[in-house]
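[User] At your convenience, examine this fold.
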Amino acid sequence: MSDTKDTCCETTNTSKTFYWLLAGVVAGAAAAVLLAPKSGRDTREQLGGWWRTTRSKLRWNRTEDTDTQKEEQEDLVGA
């Protein structure tokens, strides 16, 4: 029975550790935004530019992968 207790407690401690880690990450991100040397507008513009660039890269890669898959399928079918 002690094996079950130890396993239970280890799982609980791991879960608590994960939640504390998550809380620390959120608190750190909030502090970084609040204490940043740039204005809110500049930060939003920078994040928006990063997001647009990343999104366009992801779309480009997805389109390229789709074209490659289409060509491979056509080769298999013999079209």
Notes: The chain has a mean pLDDT of 76. The chain has two domains: 1-35, 38-79. Helices lie at 2-34, 40-77. Residues 1-35 form one domain.
